[in-house]
Write a structure and sequence with these properties.
about 210 residues; alpha/beta; seven-stranded mixed sheet; 7 helices; 7 strands; about 30% helix; globular
C-alpha cells in the first residue's frame, strides 16, 4: 500500500491496526484457518527461502512464514498495522515504506518470493499500480515468484467497484518482465474460471 492518498488510507485513516488484528484473532478463536496464504506460499518454496511481504499489515502472514523456517521482511505504509507486527514479532524486520518507492528502503534484492496479499494491489494509490509491480518485480531473484491475491468485484473488495482488471494487472506484470505461471480462485488452490470474484496469481521472473 502506498502514500497518504492510497485507497487503504482513505478507507481507514491509517488507524486500523488493532481492529484488523482483533478481527483475525476472533476468526482464529472460532476455528477458522487464518494461515491459508502462508500455506500457499510455503508450498511454492524451498526451505529457508527469502520472502518480502509487501503490504504486510499486522504481519500475520510473514510471522507464520517465519515460523515455518523462512526469512521474512515486511513492508507497509500504515504505521498502525506495523505497530502490531512489531509487538507480535519484535525480532523480524518490519519496514515503514511506500511500495511505489521500494527502492528507497535499501532492500537487498534477490528475494525468492514477493507476496502482495490482502487486496494490496487494488488498494494502492490510483495510478501507481504499474510502478509498484515494477518495484516488486525488481527485488526478485531470477526465477523468483510474485504471488498476489485480489478481489475482482465488490463482494471481495472493501470498495464499491473494482479499480482494476486482471487484464490490466497481467499487462503491468508483463511490462515488469514477469510471466503468469498459475492462477487460482482461492488460497486453497481452487481452479480459477473467468468471472471469479477473487484471483490468486503466481507470476515468475525469468531464470537467467
Amino acid at each position: 500500500m502506498t502514500g497518504q492518498s492510497d485507497r487503504w488510507a482513505e478507507l481507514t485513516g491509517g488507524q486500523a491496526g488493532e481492529e484488523y488484528a482483533q478481527r483475525f484473532a476472533r476468526l482464529a478463536e472460532s476455528g477458522h484457518d487464518i494461515h491459508g496464504e502462508a500455506a500457499f506460499c510455503a508450498a511454492l518454496l524451498n526451505p529457508a527461502a527469502r520472502i518480502l511481504d509487501a503490504g504486510c499489515g499486522t504481519g500475520r502472514i510473514a510471522i507464520r512464514l517465519a515460523e515455518l523456517g523462512h526469512s521474512c521482511t515486511g513492508v507497509d505504509v500504515d504505521s498502525s498495522m506495523l505497530a502490531v507486527a512489531r509487538r507480535d514479532a519484535p525480532t523480524q524486520e518490519w519496514l515503514l515504506g511506500d511500495l511505489a518507492r521500494l527502492d528507497a528502503l535499501g532492500l537487498h534484492p534477490g528475494f525468492d518470493l514477493v507476496l502482495a496479499a490482502g487486496n494490496v494491489i487494488p488498494l494502492l494509490a490510483p495510478g501507481t499500480e504499474a510502478a509498484v509491480v515494477r518495484q516488486l518485480a525488481g527485488v526478485l531473484r531470477p526465477g523468483g515468484l510474485l504471488v498476489t491475491g485480489m478481489g475482482l468485484d465488490a463482494e471481495h473488495l472493501p470498495l464499491p467497484e473494482p479499480p482494476l482488471t486482471l487484464t490490466e494487472f497481467d499487462h503491468w506484470c508483463t511490462q515488469a518482465g514477469l510471466t503468469l505461471r498459475q492462477r487460482y480462485a482461492t488460497w486453497s488452490g481452487d481452479p480459477y474460471r473467468q468471472g471469479c470474484g477473487y484471483a490468486v496469481s503466481v507470476h515468475s521472473r525469468p531464470s537467467e
